[in-house]
Amino acid sequence: MRIEPFTDTPLSILAYDGTPKENPDSLGLGKDDYLHMYRWLVFVRGVDDRGYILVRQGRAGFYAQIAGQEAAQVGSALPLLKDDWMYPDHRSQGSMLVKGLSAAEWFGHVLGRTLDPTQGRLMPHGPGRRDLHIVPPASTVGNKITEAVGTAMAQRIKKRKEITICYMGDGATSEGDFHVGMNFAAVYQAPALMFVQNNQYAISMRTDQQTRTKTIAEKARAYGMPGYFVDGNDVLAVYAVTKHCADRARSGNGPSLIEAYTYRYGPHSSADDDTRYRPKGELEMWRTQRDPVTRMRRFLELRGWWSEEQEQRLQAEIKAQLAAAMEEAEKSPPPAPLTVFDHVYETLTPHLAWERAELAAELGV
Amino acid sequence: MATVQTPPQTQLTMVQAIRSALLEEMERDQDVVILGEDIGVRGGVFLITEGLIDKFGPERVIDTPLAEAGIIGAAVGMALYGLRPIAEIQFIDFIFPGFDLLVTEAAKIRYRSAGQFGVPMVIRSPYGGGVRGGAYHSQSPEAYFVATPGLKVVVPSNPYDAKGLLIASIRDPDPVVFMEPKKIYRAVKSEVPAGPYEVPLGKAALVREGKHVSIITFGAMVQVALEAAGLLAADGVEAEILDLRTLQPYDTQAILTTVAKTGHVVLLQEAPRIGGYCAEIAAYIAEHAVEHLEGPIVRVAGWDTAFPYALEKVYMPNAQRVVRAVKKTLNF
Fold first, then answer.
1. Which side of chain A, N or C, has fewer Cβ within a 10 Å radius?
2. Between chains, do B75 and A154 touch, taking CB under 8 Å as contact?
3. Contact B69 A146 (CB under 8 A)
4. Contact residues, chain B, for A159 at CB < 8 Å
């Protein structure tokens, strides 16, 4: 696959049925890498399925599924190095898991328990972990874009060989923050990857209702940076393009925009009714013909590296792993009431101390 | 023959004092960077950052595109990474494109990340009227920031405090909105030591002692309070003036002490009255010190209008208004 910007059709390596259009080994990948990628795809889908059940059981208040977008997330997170920074958006748990967040922490986050590295402070859009360089996402769409660019600027100022990836959806590209962030990234040649998961809907609004441009990738041209349009359900293509842009940024050649063209299977969130706006048959078509997990599995099968028996074994193994993770999360207690005053500032202000005493008296603790 | 080294003291304006804080902190800490519009070769429109780009280069004195959301957003991202950015917003009236980043992001990341991430940044910006700036170069929007837990809000009233408070703000682990009273950028001089020193955040200063009434204020209005106190002294009224210096978190103890001493309170701010900062102080006194009050708490504020250009003098609180307010509470 020639990785070139501003194509009219998405860059891809695997056809919808998993047949390679060209030999992906040219990416420098081998059997173990493909199996590793596939395992991640199955794993993040498993985590997500299990997480969503918590809402249906009434044990969590909210959930935004990544189903359908696994390849975009796994493929873009795998090329990152340990010290790279990640700014996930509100639907990026797949990327966070690849970067090092544990399934137990994710479930703890969804349940609002202390196992959540962010102590139940944000509705289940994703926690963050300082040591993994994962910044907690915002529910407010677009807010992280300029910040991610600031982090990338800092990496450049400090002359570190690190990059920052910023995840956003198609809807975020309508926000002013997108314009400002893209411009800053380009002006300062910041080592930033602006990664758009175009899942075709911002709640109910289709991408063609957000923008008149044919692709989101082409917007990059106006900022003086390359924009890559990639099949977001092709984990190999996403990996290749992200790796290309990461190498480019790491070697001091500036930012890139990547548009991963994908599709979300679930509603916007557990509070949404997507039957109101999706055309009949669309979801079914994506699920049955373009599924990112199935596509990679077909590729492995074509190579003779994967069997039904291996699939069963992997599913069982992940199921057991997730059951253990869920148990760990459930055992973790919710945050104690008086911690509500922690971390407003680094130290408690006199005012907060007064309020804390008031609550302590009220609770008799 | 050995000589005793005493730190040199110089009469500086607020502009010079702020510049010396920036210069000394940038010399001390490589992670301190400044960013904003026209702050490089132009030296900032008020020349606060004059000469800094020559000394520290464009990597640490960063001229930015004209986008406040970008300045504040980038500063947040730099701070999360571990730098100590100081963002200049050319006039605080221009902060609103970046307001979202300030209140939604900078203020909340420490809380939201359960203390994993902090945002040690300062947003410096000139505020206030009296310079014929009209509606968009004169406002005092402190109430918006004070109403956002997670932000600290600092307003110096003289060059000495400006330097010490700015240094304390730069070293503070949390985001600080540092509002500079541009009317007195060059109008007031004070002794400012060379070399770094901190004026602690959250501590008010007793600017003038008096026993009859407490005038509680901050920023450029401290000068107005002093002028009023002079007029009142001629009438035998001794006004105490408390300069809050930090609006969030504020010095509750200093407020309670002066209220207990005088029993009469006049609150003075430039911003419009409704929902203004003084409403918070009035409420705090009413909740915690009502037993000491011998008259109504009276506010002197800008009118509840937008800031006018031609009628600026009509808008701005002045010493006569403060005197009338003092008499109103004393004669209750």
1. C
2. no
3. yes
4. none
Residue A333 in contact with residue A113, Cβ under 8 Å? yes
| DSSP E strands, chain A | 85-87, 164-169, 192-198, 201-202, 205-206, 227-231, 256-261
Domains B9-193 and B205-330 equal at CATH topology level = yes
Any A CB within 8 A of B236 CB: no
What's the CATH number for B205-330? 3.40.50.920
Which residues does chain A have within 8 Å of residue B149's beta carbon, measured at their own beta carbons?
344
Interface contact B171, partner A, CB < 8 A: no
Residue A186, both tokens:
């380009």
Tell me the per-residue pLDDT of A4-55, one tens digit each, with 9 for 90 and over. Answer: 999 999 999 999 999 999 889 988 999 999 999 999 999 999 999 999 999 9
Record the tokens describing residue A131, joined without a space: 């040591």
**Domains located in chain A, CATH noted:** 24-334 (3.40.50.970), 336-365 (no CATH)
Q: Which two tokens stand for residue A279?
A: 């055309």
Confidence class for position A250, pLDDT limits 50, 70, 90: very high
Give yes or no for a contact between A352 and A341, defined as CB atoms under 8 angstroms apart: yes
B77 and A148 within 8 Å at the Cβ level: the answer is: yes
Token pair in block for residue B284 = 């705090």
pLDDT at residue B7 in the model: 61
Cβ of residue B123 closer than 8 Å to a chain A Cβ? no
Q: What is the largest CA-CA distance in chain B?
A: 66
Nearest CA among B83, B90, B246 for reference residue B156: B246
Q: Is A245 on the interface with B (CB under 8 A)?
A: no
Homologous superfamily of domain range B9-193: Thiamin diphosphate (ThDP)-binding fold, Pyr/PP domains (3.40.50.970)
Dist CA A218 CA A197 (whole Å): 14
Q: What pTM did the predictor assign?
A: 0.97
Give dist(CA A279, CA B71) in Å, integer: 42
As a whole number, mean pLDDT of residues B11-35 equals: 98
**By the 8 A CB rule, do A351 and B280 touch?**
no
Spell out the domain ranges in chain B.
9-193, 205-330
**A155 contact B CB<8A:** yes
| Cβ contact B77–A146 (<8 Å) | yes
Shortest Cα distance, chain B CAs vs residue A1, angstroms? 34
